[in-house]
Amino acid sequence: MHACGHDGHVAMALGAATALVALRDSWSGRVRLCFQPAEEIASGAMPMIGDGAADGVDHVLGIHLWAPLETGRVAVKSGVIFGSADSFSVTIQGRGGHGGMPHTAIDPVVVTAQVILAIQSIISRETSPFSPAVITIGRVTAGTAFNVIADSAELLGTTRAIDASERERLLQRVAEIATAVASGFGAEAKFIRGTGCPPVVSDPAMADLVHRAAAATVGEDRVDIAVPITVGDDVACFLERAPGCYFLVGAGHPERGPVPPHHSAYFDIDEAALPVGVETLVRASLVVLG
Length: 290
Known about the structure:
By secondary structure, the protein is an alpha+beta fold. The protein contains 7 helices and 12 strands. Helix 1 (6-22) crosses helix 7 and helix 3 (108-126) runs antiparallel to helix 4 (164-184). The chain starts with 5 loop residues before the first helix and ends with a helix.
């Protein structure tokens, strides 16, 4: 289970395809549907683009269900809506030893703890509060037993930034600080940059088109100006290649209690959101293809 709504995205795209086929006499041109995998680890878009998925494409429409937004609402905006998303790993090489004699070893677990704390200062002390950015460590691994100091430890993390110029700085500073902190303890740090993607940016004209399509679907009073957030999606790579718009379709059902967040084991969508996404996609497509 990847609890984010991607089964709903597939359903909405297939629904839009069915509707556009039924309306084939009312539009001209060609529609290409891309069922993009691995968007959150930034490993889906570029292989598809490499295989020609973006060749000859004049406009791009991207869609995502959004649980924090109530069903029957649509959120759209021009400019940045999602931040950049990059992954990284840092391996701390120490010197193993007996858990009861730490003075004879270089404990990579202690060094890793210091690295984690130090790199958080990149956000709190080096980044403007008016430039949203995130560094999160999602996994830390080391050791095999309670009484053994391990030889090495590894942490896996991610950086997020709304401003594209911040993207490279964050990664560079993680590498610099991890290396410096580890060296101070007599250990070594190896930084490896993983997969990543730039911020998701909607073209102003296409965002306006989608706004009008959403208003025709749910009513102007139920269309929101999306607030940029520091999650990522490598649909950004498609939007770099053709003007487009990425928008959010509300899928929350607050009347059933607190809405579990995306990536929660209790995540669920209100399936009444699916027709909203389908109609908005179809209305926007018909304008582009008209």
